[in-house]
Amino acid sequence: MSDQNSRNGRVGLIVPSSNTTVEPEFRAFLPNEVTVHGARMALESVTVDELDAMSDDAARAAELLGHADVDAVAYACTTGSLIHGPGFDAELEERLREAAGVPAVATARSVVRALKALEADRIAVATPYTSELDEKEREFLAESGFDVASIDGRGLAANTEIGALTPDDASRQVLEHVGSDDDLDAVFVSCTNYRSLAAIDALEAKLGVPVITSNGATLWDVCGAAGFAVDGPGTLFGRDR
């Protein structure tokens, strides 16, 4: 991390162009002395083809964030960092690290790190996605070593429709989908454009298990990589990276 005695901290975010959720959710939990700086990649619909094309812009976005002297970079897109399965997320992080010249994380890998920090094995997943992307996410999580008890999607592709969802929508989806007898270690709410960080504390209180979201896992991970202290919601932010 850069010398914080001479300036405040900076987090670089690489986000889909249609994402309206990452920056405000990060800003809500970062300390005032840490600023958020974004670079955008073209994406209107959350489909395999658009996600695949979007990742081609990632290294250039990271390079440009490096010009802002950020302390770490996050590729804030869940399915965009897992569509090619385990290994792609780690390769993506390395490409971004080299381009920006600072530590880099990708949301899919951040989710894996978060679940491992929570010592979670059996999980339930709630998403806004279509069934095609739900299946790719299930495969990624299973190949990463997790027992996916269930996955529930809303069937949305237009990212503006996903961004219009609220924390109450996320909470209702989880509570309708997850049963008290499911014997889970954690619940994961997927998608960086699905506003859900504000629902975590209440969901954990009702379900009795840790709940993570894409933005929560990414925020926890990128701040850990940069060396920033952050007081986020839920059990995860009490765990070391």
Name some characteristics of this structure.
alpha/beta; Rossmann fold; 4-stranded parallel β-sheet; 10 helices
Structure description:
- This is Aspartate/glutamate racemase family protein.
- It holds the Pfam family Amdase.
- It comes from Natrinema zhouii.
- InterPro entries: Iso_Racemase_Enz_sf, MaiA/AMDase.
- The chain has 241 residues and is α/β, with parallel strands linked by helices.
- It has 2 domains: 9-109 and 216-238, Rossmann fold (3-Layer(aba) Sandwich), CATH 3.40.50; 110-213, Rossmann fold (3-Layer(aba) Sandwich).
- 41% of the residues lie in helices and 17% in strands.
- It has 10 helices and 8 strands.
- The strands form 2 sheets. It has a 4-stranded parallel beta sheet with strand order 2-1-3-4, sandwiched between helices. Strands 6-5-7-8 form a 4-stranded parallel beta sheet, sandwiched between helices.
- Helix 6 links the parallel strand 5 and strand 6 (147-152).
- Helix 3 packs parallel to helix 4 and helix 5 packs across helix 10 (214-226).
- 51% of the residues are buried.
- The model is unreliable at 1-6 (pLDDT under 50).
